[in-house]
Amino acid sequence: MLSLTCLSAPGTGKLPLSGRYQSTLAPLSGRLSLRAGSPSTTNQQRFRLSPTASAVDPDAAADRILKKATQGSKVPNSKKSAILTSGGTGIGVFSLLLLNIIVFVLDLFFPSIIRAMWLNHAAARWWQFISCAFCHVGWEHLSNNLFLLFVFGRIVEEEEGAAGVWVSYLLSAVGGSVASYLTMRHAGYSLGASGAVFGLFAVSVLCKLSFNLKKLLEAAILGQFVVKQVLQEVSSQGALMRGGYGATLGGHSIGHIAHLGGAAAGVLLVFALSKIPAPANA
């Protein structure tokens, strides 16, 4: 998340910005019917296709096989939907990526409308705590967040389904926005998906912690990256609190506290869900 500092130009009242994204398997109407020739036909059997026969769609047949393979299994429905999603990217991550890109494109043509979605620290609206997580100040800002959302969002969706990745993204975004809003004492704006992405960092690691060697190895690999990123944010935020300077992107200040707030929200989400008792028939 970026923080945009606004200072009023004397006598102008303007705020220039400074330094701171089934085949429903149609029923097989093409039924193959085998018809033996009439008794009067000697030693000949004729096999004909029913007049209603049609070509079988190979993609539809593949979907049917996948559905049959997962029927009766212990795979949760959310994971079944992810397995059956074509293209390798679940619909949850795909929709988040697409929405971020759409907002970025709209910003090129309707900047005044999109900038109303930024979190305005001087006069915040409740919906800006969410909407700012879909806004970006430039292509570099957007592309960095899209890459991390694609990688870690897919991991979360594989484990928790499309609803899981959306809930993780939104709650982490709110956590990052609240942290930024409470700690920035000057007038300015916050925007960007990075607070939500840091929440996905945390969720992607924690949801793989189980008594399973494969998942533990995955958690260790992801965890070393996530811990490194979080420690860097702690260090940068500490420097800011001591009067130093934090990192910048495109001349704008990076909201380190928003990243930490998003990660904390992700941890709290997983912790809260872990306390919900499992259904009796699970």
From TrEMBL:
Regions that span the bilayer: 82-106, 126-151, 163-182, 188-207
Subcellular location: Membrane
Main localization category: membrane
One Pfam family linked to the record: Rhomboid
Assigned keywords, A-Z: Membrane, Transmembrane, Transmembrane helix
InterPro entries found in the cross-reference section: Peptidase_S54_rhomboid_dom, Rhomboid-like_sf
Annotated membrane topology: Multi-pass membrane protein
Gene Ontology cellular component terms for the protein in this record: membrane
Domain Peptidase S54 rhomboid stretches: 124-275
Superkingdom as given in the UniProt entry: Eukaryota
Gene Ontology molecular function, alphabetical: serine-type endopeptidase activity
Family membership: Belongs to the peptidase S54 family.
Protein's name in the database: Peptidase S54 rhomboid domain-containing protein
